[in-house]
Amino acid sequence: MKFIGITGGIGAGKSEILSYIRKHYICEIYLADEVAHLVKEPGTKCYEKLIELLGKEILSPDGQIDKGKMADRIFADAGLLEQVNDIIHPAVKEFLLEHLERAKQKGRTELFFVEAALLIEGGYRELVDEMWYIYASEDVRRTRLRQTRGYSDEKITHIMAKQLDEALFRKNCDFVIDNSGALEDSYRQIDKKLEAFTWQE
Q1: 122 closest CA partner among 86, 149, 173
Q2: pLDDT tier at 77 (50, 70, 90 boundaries)?
Q3: Other C-beta atoms lying within 10 Å of the C-beta of residue 75
Q4: N or C: which end of the chain has fewer CB within 10 A?
Q5: Contact between residue 70 and residue 50 where contact means Cβ atoms under 8 Å apart
Q6: Res 78: pLDDT
Q7: 25-54: average pLDDT
Q8: pTM score, two decimals?
């Protein structure tokens, strides 16, 4: 079984690529943002640590951590963001490694994927067997974000400025999928890369 990290800038089309892989290969796919939500569920170690750090005022009436309240609390104290990340990021990695081990023991999964924009910054290079970079030109990404999410040019520029530049993505990744054109072109690149693995119609 191969453990693969998928990363790339906003608007590169990571979701479409993963949707195709999920449909045609024997795999498990985890999105780091979704896992980060799961590890904050009541009853988890991460949940308890966050309550201890930030206080019960970040809870909603049903006992869940309220994302907005947590963000407000962190915004009020810049030092808290690093402490929160130091709680959540290791919990996400622990969750993924547990599920990876479980998938290995079951012996059916051929490909195990984790997707996040910040995989490189998060130190996943040391965990995965391969890191894939989903590339699309800046013009294409801007057009997609305007059309599909309704983002303004200012918002897009602000988000892109916070992400790694193309050279760093390429330097840290083993395989690049050019997703600037038609999706069929991207699918051909994936199929060629994964030709040793089981294909499912």
Answers
A1: 86
A2: confident
A3: 10
A4: C
A5: yes
A6: 78
A7: 95
A8: 0.91
Q: Provide the mean pLDDT of the chain.
A: 95
- Enumerate long-range contacts of 83-87, CB under 8 Å, 24 or more apart: 83/53, 84/50, 84/53, 84/54, 87/46, 87/49, 87/50, 87/53
- Residue whose pair of structure tokens reads 């009436």 in the numeric block: 61
Looking at residue 129, its amino acid is D
Place of tokens 């013009």: 139
Tokens matching residue 156 = 């897009």
Of 151, 124, 110, 136, the C-alpha closest to 35 is 124
Q: pLDDT-derived band of residue 76, with 50, 70 and 90 as boundaries?
A: confident
Phi, psi of 3 (to 5 degrees): -100, 115
Cα maximum dimension of the chain = 52
Beta bridge partners of 2: 111
pLDDT average, residue stretch 181-185:
95
Residue type at 155 in one-letter notation = K
Q: Which amino acid appears at position 107 of this protein? A: G
Q: Residues 141, 148: contact at Cβ < 8 Å?
A: no
Q: Is 5 helix (H, G, I), strand (E, B) or coil?
A: strand
Residue-wise pLDDT tens digits, 111-161:
999 999 889 999 999 999 999 999 999 999 999 999 999 999 999 999 999
Please state which CATH number belongs to domain 2-193: 3.40.50.300
The answer to whether 8 touches 92, Cβ cutoff 8 Å, is no
DSSP per-residue letters across 74-97: HHT-HHHHHHHHHHHHHHHHHHHH
